[in-house]
Specification:
Hydrolyzes 3-hydroxyisobutyryl-CoA (HIBYL-CoA), a saline catabolite. Has high activity toward isobutyryl-CoA. Could be an isobutyryl-CoA dehydrogenase that functions in valine catabolism. Keywords: Hydrolase. This is 3-hydroxyisobutyryl-CoA hydrolase. Pathway: Amino-acid degradation; L-valine degradation. By secondary structure, the chain is an alpha/beta fold. It has one domain: 2-enoyl-CoA Hydratase, Chain A, domain 1 (Alpha-Beta Complex), CATH 3.90.226. Helix content is 46%, strand content 10%. It is built from 19 helices and ten strands. β2, α4 and β3 form a beta-alpha-beta unit. α6 packs antiparallel against α17 and α16 crosses α19. The longest helix is centred in the first third of the chain and has 19 residues.
Length: 410
């Protein structure tokens, strides 16, 4: 994890490739109910395994839905990783995705259908399984290499960011777009986003904006960068290594890395204005500050950021801002436990049904016209926000992580 916190000093070179609009990624996700997913996918083949000299590679293999993670995938990953950790013949583990994505996140369309069918226990099981695997990656006793060649969003970041090494390419597209579907950045996002330079984490969490591979290197989300055309060679060389030493693996990756700098249009060249606006105490103040900048300078970036914020769920914006701020002072396991509480509050619909409405509007009916409730920031009370962070009921246990056996990082 230390490499993640220090990686903002690393820069590499890339070709900028055209980034598709976030909504296009959403529309690729399946709208089938969970039981149909199971019927259509061979469970074993959803996570493929390749054996190497001294390593194993897990391949997320649901390319038709951008490798979106479901419960069975999370369970299989947990089982595989635990067995590999116990195997003295395996030195390190690599993860990648099939097709044009690393992983677009959790299969929220399946969760949407489960919620509408009243299967809340199945929804909880998914999040427990996924978050537990993310904790396993973050406390893994062997080096972990994630090859982020393609879309890496939400839960896709959750299964890769806690690991030792993260390789970005010219095809990498990172985002935490949960506020746009009435949710909150989860899967450990409140931990790793809160540790980014300045207040970039608040910006990414609230707007859901994308970063490319060059930007991921510059801000520390990725540790290495290579051209996607070189990945077969990179994977071949990694497969030949017989080691459990992360420095040896890193040296191998360094042989195929390229120097890259964010383009002048990148948000990373606007850290001053990001910090000025997104360091403020409330979402209302952030928006007021951006509006003042637009009135004063007619800045196109500020105007686009404002439009993005106004597309998101008002409740999600306030909940997400508090989550990132809390995450700065919590360990990784504390962030996951809190995010699990927040997730169950969202699933319960006791405060709002924005999560279901957001998924419906963007990924099921695809009308891109969610009817948020509350519909404005003014209508979102402090009590509503605080409810998301409240302890669960006595009959609803918190997420249990093996913190006594596997120490979390801070």
């Amino acid at each position: 994890m230390q490499s993640f916190l220090n990686a903002s000093s690393i820069t590499r070179r890339c070709r900028r490739e055209n980034l598709l609009a976030l909504t296009q990624y959403y529309l690729r996700l399946s709208s089938l109910p969970q039981n149909q997913h199971v019927l259509n996918d061979d469970l074993e083949n959803q996570v493929l395994v390749e054996g190497k000299a001294s390593s194993r590679m897990a391949i997320l293999n649901r390319p038709s839905v951008l490798n979106a993670i479901n419960t069975s995938m999370g369970a299989r990953l947990n089982k595989l990783y635990k067995s590999w950790e116990d195997d003295p013949n395996i030195g390190f583990v690599t993860m990648k995705g099939s097709g044009r994505a690393f992983c677009a996140g959790g299969d929220v369309v399946a969760i949407y259908h489960m919620m509408n069918q009243g299967n809340l226990e199945d929804c909880k099981d998914f999040f427990r399984t996924a978050y537990s695997f993310m904790y396993l990656v973050g406390t893994y006793l062997k080096p972990h290499v994630a090859i982020l060649n393609g879309i890496t969003m939400g839960g896709g970041a959750g299964v890769s960011m806690p690991g030792t090494l993260r390789v970005a390419t010219g095809k990498t597209v990172f985002a935490t777009p949960e506020t746009l579907i009435g949710f909150h950045p989860d899967a450990g996002a409140s931990f790793y986003l809160s540790h980014l330079p300045g207040h970039l984490g608040e910006y990414l969490a609230l707007t859901g904006e994308k970063l490319n591979g060059a930007e991921m290197i510059a801000c520390g989300l990725a540790t290495h960068y290579t051209l996607s055309e070189r990945l077969p060679l990179v994977e071949e060389q990694l497969g030949k290594l017989v080691t459990d030493d992360p420095s040896v693996i890193e040296a191998c990756l360094e042989n195929y890395c390229d120097l890259v700098y964010p383009e002048q249009t990148s948000v990373l060249h606007r850290i001053g204005i990001v910090d000025k606006c997104f360091s403020l105490d409330s979402v209302e103040e952030i928006i007021d500050s951006l509006e003042s900048e637009v009135a004063r300078t007619n800045d196109a970036w500020c105007a686009a950021t404002l439009r993005r914020l106004k597309e998101a769920s008002p409740l999600s914006l306030k909940v997400s801002l508090k989550s990132i701020r809390d995450g700065r002072y919590e360990t990784f396991d504390q962030c996951l436990v809190r995010e699990y509480r927040m997730t169950l509050q969202g699933l319960s619909k006791q405060v709002s049904g924005d999560f279901c409405e957001g998924v419906r509007a963007r990924m099921v009916d695809r009308d891109l016209a969610p009817k948020w409730n509350p519909s404005s920031l003014e209508q979102v009370s402090k009590d509503m926000v605080d409810q998301y962070f409240s302890p669960l009921s006595e009959s609803e246990p918190d997420l249990e992580l093996p913190t006594k056996l596997r120490e979390a990082f801070s």
